[in-house]
Amino acid sequence: MGGPLARTMETPGQPSPEPPRRRSVRARRQRPATVLAEGGPECLDHRLGVRLISWNLAKAPGTRRELEHHVQSADLVCLQEAMPSLLPDVPGSVHFAESFRRLRPNAEFHGVATLARAQARHGDHATIASRWREGWIVTPKMALATEYELGDELLLVVNVHAMNFQPVFKYMLRDQFERIAQRIAAHAGPAIVCGDFNTWRADRLRLIENLLHGFEPVVFGESEHRKRGHWVSSLAFGNRELPLDHVYVRGLDWREAQVLPSEHSDHGALAVHLFPKRGQEGSQGTHASGPHPML
Questions:
Q1: What is the average pLDDT across 30-38?
Q2: Distance from C-alpha of 101 to C-alpha of 36, rounded to nearest angstrom
Q3: Does some domain include residue 34?
Q4: The total number of structural domains that make up the chain
Q5: Which of 82-91, 97-106, 140-149, 205-214 is predicted least confidently?
């Protein structure tokens, strides 16, 4: 695996160009994250590492049973297209950032949720709402930033559901990740950025990687469960063979990266075991010492 990603397209600090007014619809005001549970130990165990799962549930009710299985062996679970009713009870903390709900009576909010075996730092959980709504479905996209103690460091976790339905002009996607990059810039310790990035075009992934400078991608093997391209890929000049879901890390080693199949979601869950980086030499992801099965 290569070294940290370098900025190749943007000038540091250069803001994205403001799009034409007729193309933009401002998203509703940003809401604070909802704390659904607040328990568990005060910190994650840096000696055992952090077992991470990132998964788009696709709002499918059948994913709850699969999720109940996954959370038994995970320390962090980052979910997109989640609803509170799909979340299992966990002996830790649960934070939810609502995005939208369908126009029907008693409809639940959809959004992103982060489940952790440990407590989040009090007050250090914030939504990062997109400023723009998506195309004809006029829904905003959401990211959720939470912090956890990991040994003598603070681990920042940013759970992202990226802008979609924008085939050519990427100002909305760029604006969303610039806001995420601003949050990351305020954190000096190890960090994880993961989720459904909607990278059904290579130029969309290049844009995101350019803004996540200093981060390394976790490399997952080929899997049909990671390439179940969304139907919008075909309509919007996309490539159905490109994966939509990603995990990027800074200051962390990784091993045992795998894609877990799902019978209910059109996304496979990404699972990886992460450890604090112990110096640059010999810290290239899967070259960390010894196997450590995750599931």
A1: 76
A2: 18
A3: yes
A4: 1
A5: 97-106
Q: Is 3 part of any domain? A: no
Return d(Cα 163, Cα 192) in angstroms, integer.
Answer: 19
- Give me the residues paired with residue 259 across strands: 270
- Going from the C-alpha of 11 to that of each of 6, 43, 176, the distances in angstroms are 12, 37, 17
In which region does residue 137 sit, left (phi positive, over 0), alpha (psi from -120 to 50) or beta (all else)? alpha
CATH no. for residue 98? 3.60.10.10
Q: How confident is the model at residue 77, as a pLDDT?
A: 97
Contact 191, 148 (CB under 8 A): no
Q: Among 91, 92, 95, which Cα is nearest to 78's?
A: 95
* 164 and 238 Cβ atoms separated by less than 8 Å: no
280 secondary structure, DSSP code: S
Q: What number is the average pLDDT over the span 11-20?
A: 46
Domain membership of residue 282 (yes or no) is yes
Instruction: Copy the structure tokens of residue 185.
Output: 């810039």
For the CA atoms of 167, 236, 244, 8, what is the dihedral angle to 10 degrees? -40
Read off the pTM: 0.80
Distance CA 139, CA 44 (A): 34
Q: What residues make up the domain containing 256?
A: 25-287
In a domain, 13, yes or no: no
For residue 137, pLDDT over 60 is answered with no
Q: Specify the pLDDT at position 284.
A: 41
